[in-house]
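Record Fur family transcriptional regulator, ferric uptake regulator, 137 aa.
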Amino acid sequence: MRLNRNNNFYLCTMAKRNTITKQLILESLKNSKSALSQEILQKELGESVDRATIYRVLNSFCEDGIVHKILGDDGKFYFAFCINCSEKKHQHNHFHFKCLSCGNIECLPNEIDVKLPPGYQSVTFNGFISGYCKNCS
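=>
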């Protein structure tokens, strides 16, 4: 699946086989204000989609640069729809915030520039903060 951006609308063209399940998962991720886990998606989609299919689709979306994966403080993976990425620049060096009250996990907007010692090269960054969001504090 590739994502083309025109006038801030997301048009999906499938490089791989398009299925109703992929579209349902993509719509759930796009419409969510929070990163979603496989369990959350399973509850939203019901018994019509099995757990293995959801994981397979989410990992495929990660490979295609449509979503990014977040390792939460509970050891679970959460998935967030990419908003500020282009096809050439797919970067997620930002912190993620989990509210201890409502449980929402969101991407914080500021990119982080981590200064590494000479000779080191960063490939991924996973920063996670727990606390209380603006609606719960």
